[in-house]
């Protein structure tokens, strides 16, 4: 299970062993704890083994912006490579564990294992696509479309992890969701209530049960 969550696909057994030897596995991160901070010098790349995180940017005027939610199997810290400083705070949404690989060790391995380099390039590309999706959410969608797109995206990511695609336990708060989508918390709650009234979802605290995925899909266009 550790290898499935922490190591890239497509490596042969020898390459897996070499990368695995450079990793620290199952480092515990408590709920609310910072994994790394915005502006901190890049020291390591992380893969989430269990749990989930949110990333946050702090602006000079004191405002904060949630920039993403990361789930098990996803990597964090790749956006620090260009400037060699982490671009955001990474905060655990629940008690979590991560795999850590020293960045210098990773750079040395990448020069020796071409498939590892391709794997990280694909991961970086996926992050770029996700950032573009966020810009679309914030720039051109109505509130209902943003929330629908958020739920559909989570559903797809849960499915990719062989978890229920219809029963979504949200570890983030409504306030976090609003910050991420560029909406007020009242708007997020209102839209979720409307979706529930229309039979698209059922809301039970932090559990969102998707009852009409096709209707949600029809609301978003990304």
Write the layout of secondary structure elements.
Elements: H1 2-6, H2 13-21, E1 23-29, E2 34-36, E3 44-50, E4 52-58, E5 64-71, E6 75-76, E7 89-92, E8 96-102, H3 103-112, H4 114-140, H5 143-160, E9 167-169, H6 174-181, H7 185-197, E10 201-204, E11 207-210, H8 213-219
Helix pairs in contact: 3-4, 5-8, 6-7
CATH topology term of the largest domain: Jelly Rolls
Task: Give the helices and strands as they follow along the chain.
Answer: HHEEEEEEEEHHHEHHEEH
Give the proportion of residues in helices. Answer: 40-55%
**Strand count, sense and closure of the main sheet?**
4 strands, antiparallel
Report the principal-axis shape. Answer: globular
Q: Kindly report the average pLDDT value.
A: 84
Describe this structure in words.
The chain is of the alpha+beta class and 222 residues long. It has a 4-stranded antiparallel sheet with strand order 1-8-3-6. It has 2 domains: 2-126, Sandwich (Jelly Rolls), CATH 2.60.120.10; 141-219, Winged helix-like DNA-binding domain superfamily/Winged helix DNA-binding domain (Arc Repressor Mutant, subunit A). It has helices at 2-6, 13-21, 103-112, 114-140, 143-160, 174-181, 185-197, 213-219; strands at 23-29, 34-36, 44-50, 52-58, 64-71, 75-76, 89-92, 96-102, 167-169, 201-204, 207-210. It has 8 helices and 11 strands. The two termini are 32 Å apart. α5 crosses α8 (213-219) and α6 (174-181) packs across α7.
């Amino acid at each position: 299970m550790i290898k499935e969550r922490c190591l890239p696909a497509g490596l042969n057994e020898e390459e897996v062993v070499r990368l695995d030897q450079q990793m620290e596995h199952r480092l515990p991160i408590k709920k609310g704890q910072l994994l790394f901070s915005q502006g901190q010098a890049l020291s390591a790349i992380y893969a989430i083994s269990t749990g989930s995180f949110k990333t946050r940017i702090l602006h000079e005027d004191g405002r904060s912006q949630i920039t993403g939610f990361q789930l098990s199997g996803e990597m964090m810290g790749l956006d620090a490579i260009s400037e060699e400083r982490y671009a955001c705070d990474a905060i655990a949404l629940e008690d979590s564990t991560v795999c850590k690989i020293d960045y210098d060790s990773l750079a040395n391995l990448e020069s020796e294992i071409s498939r590892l380099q391709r794997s990280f390039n694909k991961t970086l590309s996926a992050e770029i696509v996700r950032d573009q999706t966020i810009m679309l959410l914030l720039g051109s969608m109505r509130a209902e479309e943003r929330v629908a797109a958020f739920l559909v995206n989570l559903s797809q990511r849960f499915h990719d992890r062989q978890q229920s695609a219809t029963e979504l336990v949200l570890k983030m708060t409504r306030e976090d969701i609003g910050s991420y989508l560029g909406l007020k918390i009242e708007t997020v709650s209102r839209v979720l209530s409307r979706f529930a009234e229309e039979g698209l979802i059922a809301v039970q605290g932090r559990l969102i049960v998707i009852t009409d995925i096709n209707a949600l899909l029809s609301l978003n266009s990304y």
